[in-house]
Amino acid sequence: MLEDGNWGSYWYESADYVALHACRALRVLDLMTPETCRAIEAARRPVSAHDPFQLASRLLLPPQLSQRSKRDECLSQLLDLQSVDGGWFARSPVMRPDPWNHASSSSSAGIFDHAALFTTATAAEALARVLEDKYNRG
């Protein structure tokens, strides 16, 4: 974890996507502590209301890391962005090329999810998690 509470990433644009996987690993290893949760929460930045990948990544973070009203707002925004075909298209680059093989100033500095597969899969996982959390809460 970096000093600001985030995990560094050289591939993914979304800090929440990286935090999501770090949180999953910490939970599996039984290392998710209240201090870790507070550090992650304090470091989180606002997400774009127009980017379904960022919204879905935020929804996939453990529920204790966000206020319920903010999760509900993310959910509403995500649903509003669903395409007619049922999928979601990323509005910004989902990934960056690895820094060892691509200069950051190159024209391929951002990788979009043109087929909407990665973004749609992440959004579908987020919706399933929201339902799971709702029914587990009672």
Question: Can you lay out the helices and strands and say which pair or pack?
Answer:
Layout: H1 15-28, H2 34-43, H3 52-60, H4 68-80, H5 117-137
Helix pairs in contact: 3-4, 3-5
Fold and architecture overview:
The chain has helices at residues 15-28, 34-43, 52-60, 68-80, 117-137. By secondary structure, it is mainly α. It has a domain at 47-137. Helix 3 (52-60) packs antiparallel against helix 4 and helix 3 (52-60) packs parallel to helix 5 (117-137).
Which characteristics define this entry?
mainly alpha, single chain, globular, 138 residues
Compact description:
The chain has 138 residues and is an all-alpha fold. It has five helices and no strands.
Percent helix: 40-55%
In total, the number of strands is 0
Mean pLDDT: 78
What is the molecular shape? Answer: globular
- Percent strand: under 5%
Helical run tally: 5
Note the gap between the termini.
33 Å
User: What structural category do the secondary elements indicate?
Assistant: mainly alpha
Order of helices and strands: HHHHH
The largest pleated sheet is described as:
none
Unreliable runs, pLDDT <50, ≥5 residues? none
* Cα-based radius of gyration, to the nearest Å: 15 Å
